[in-house]
Design a protein that fits this description.
mainly alpha; 4 helices; 0% strand
């Protein structure tokens, strides 16, 4: 996620908290910090939160992923095989060696 989307998401969260405070306690935190709802800086914050909401709309349409996050600098873990993955059966090895011995005779 890019810087702009992270910033937009942070502003949307701030806006959601502010709306929660308004809904539950009738307290507008942005207006109280910046001098009322009609103050210029409060209007700028409200506008940025609104624009951030628009920027975050595509996040609704991203698919859910179960992507494994690998630690940085540790290499690629996707190509590791399990301990028992590709080992031949000992039964097969014994039969093959017996057949080879018979062919040599």
């Amino acid at each position: 996620m890019g810087f702009i989307r992270r910033l937009a998401l942070a502003l949307v969260i701030i806006g959601a908290i502010n709306w929660g405070l308004i809904g539950f306690f009738e307290f507008d935190l942005v207006a109280s910090i910046f001098g009322g709802q009609t103050a210029l800086f409060s209007k700028v914050i409200y506008a940025l939160v609104g624009i951030s909401g628009l920027v975050c709309i595509p996040l609704l349409f991203l698919p859910d992923t179960d992507e494994v996050v690998e630690p940085r600098g540790t290499g690629d873990y996707r190509n590791l095989q399990t301990e028992f993955g590709d080992e031949p059966e000992f039964k097969d090895i014994n039969e093959e060696t017996l057949k080879e011995k018979e062919l040599k005779k």
